[in-house]
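Format is chain and fold; as here:
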Amino acid sequence: MKLQKIKNDKGFTLIEMMIVLLVISVLLIITIPNVTKHNSKINSKGCEAFIQLIDSINRYIENIWILSGFKLKRN
């Protein structure tokens, strides 16, 4: 009686799974420090953009009032 090897082609081997996990780990090790290093710069840019947006809206409303005939009181 001969023993036959059973070949299972329906899945990944342990080595393949470990290689995928290794690649994902290396990518995370590279990206996480870069994101945390630039976090304050990202937040400050967002705040500056928000301030510019509010300023633009304020000027737009003032122009509408002026064109409508309202007089603005300045402090």
The longest helix spans residues 39-68. The mean pLDDT is 82. Residues 48-75 form one domain.
